[in-house]
């Protein structure tokens, strides 16, 4: 009988040659690898190193929140024409114009009542959401549920989605180009739900939806307005800190609590 592989054996030190397949896997886990991005392995010890991007000059302007696309998708997914959320979901499932979907396991469309009075938009799915196909189900999602409950809004009464519906590899922040590609999807979702208030969680959602370069610390806590004249909508928008940020910096919860009270003051409870 072949010897049993001991998955609890200590990992080789960084730089040691891997001993066997299991040791190679342990080495990769220890090095922080959590996703394979290609079908074919690349030996980067012999391949020419990729050219390093030139550092931006100090005075370079900030990138726009949603830049125009250098390579717009060849086929317009027609998100703006979606008749209802089911139609929008079908168009999103068929959309292959954003490379993030190739490394993601599931498309995370969003969930909640079709005509929720409150809509919450986050950044992008993480590992738990990628596995389940539902938004905000991991630790940040559990905190979001408690935040909403604290102002009398059960999660089931809220429509929750993200500016990007696919998990970026390794949970990195989506690039402005990825956000731009997905923006027509989320804007149509907002039009179809037509909420009475929109709560944006974190900088990625706030800069994309409000089309601003301001940081979240400046944007949060003030009412803004999202104009969608073609849909006859002018939607009050409030941004606050992302729950994942609040998990890391709990001293910011007091400010988020203030923001949530703004939502409560404007909407009251979930009953119409
Ligand atoms: N963080 C997000 O921004 N969205 C999710 O769905 C989960 C975590």
What does this structure look like?
By secondary structure, the chain is of the alpha/beta class. It has a domain at 79-267: Uracil-DNA glycosylase-like domain (Uracil-DNA Glycosylase, subunit E, 3-Layer(aba) Sandwich). The chain has helices spanning 21-30, 85-94, 100-103, 127-132, 139-150, 176-193, 202-210, 216-219, 243-248, 253-267; strands at 118-122, 158-162, 197-201, 223-228, 233-240. It has a five-stranded mixed beta sheet with strand order 2-1-3-5-4, with helices on both faces. The structure holds uracil. Residues 122-126, 129, 135-136, 138, 140-141, 162, 244 line the site of uracil.
The tally of helices reads 10
Q: Strands across the major sheet, in which order? A: 2-1-3-5-4
Percent range for β-strand residues = 5-15%
Helix content: 25-40%
CATH architecture of one domain: 3-Layer(aba) Sandwich
The CATH superfamily name of one domain is Uracil-DNA glycosylase-like domain
First-last Cα distance: 67 Å
Give a short synopsis of this structure:
By secondary structure, the protein is α/β, with parallel strands linked by helices. It has helices spanning 21-30, 85-94, 100-103, 127-132, 139-150, 176-193, 202-210, 216-219, 243-248, 253-267, and strands spanning 118-122, 158-162, 197-201, 223-228, 233-240.
């Amino acid at each position: 009988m072949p010897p049993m592989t001991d998955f609890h054996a200590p990992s080789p030190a960084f730089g040691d040659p891997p001993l066997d397949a299991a040791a190679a896997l342990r080495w990769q886990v220890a090095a922080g690898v959590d996703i394979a991005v290609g079908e074919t392995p690349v030996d980067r010890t012999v391949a020419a190193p990729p050219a390093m991007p030139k550092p931006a000059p100090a005075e370079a302007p900030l990138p726009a929140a949603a830049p125009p696309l250098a390579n717009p998708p060849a086929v317009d997914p027609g998100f703006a024409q979606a008749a209802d959320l089911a139609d929008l979901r079908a168009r999103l499932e068929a959309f292959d114009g954003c490379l993030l979907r190739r490394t993601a396991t599931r498309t995370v469309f969003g969930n909640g009542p079709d005509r929720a009075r409150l809509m919450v938009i986050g950044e992008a799915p993480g590992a738990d959401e990628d596995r389940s196909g539902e938004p905000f189900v991991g630790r940040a999602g559990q905190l979001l549920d408690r935040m909403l409950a604290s102002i009398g809004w059960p999660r089931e009464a809220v429509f929750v989605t993200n500016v990007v519906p696919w998990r970026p590899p390794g949970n990195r922040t989506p690039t402005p180009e990825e956000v731009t590609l997905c923006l027509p999807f989320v804007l149509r979702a907002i039009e179809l739900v037509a909420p009475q208030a929109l709560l944006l969680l974190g900088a990625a959602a706030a800069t994309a939806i409000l089309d601003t370069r301001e940081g979240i610390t400046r944007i949060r806590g003030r009412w803004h307005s999202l104009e969608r004249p073609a849909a006859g909508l002018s939607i009050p928008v409030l941004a606050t800190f992302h729950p994942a940020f609040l998990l890391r910096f709990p001293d910011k919860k007091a400010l988020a609590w203030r923001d949530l009270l703004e939502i409560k003051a404007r909407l009251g409870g979930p009953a119409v």
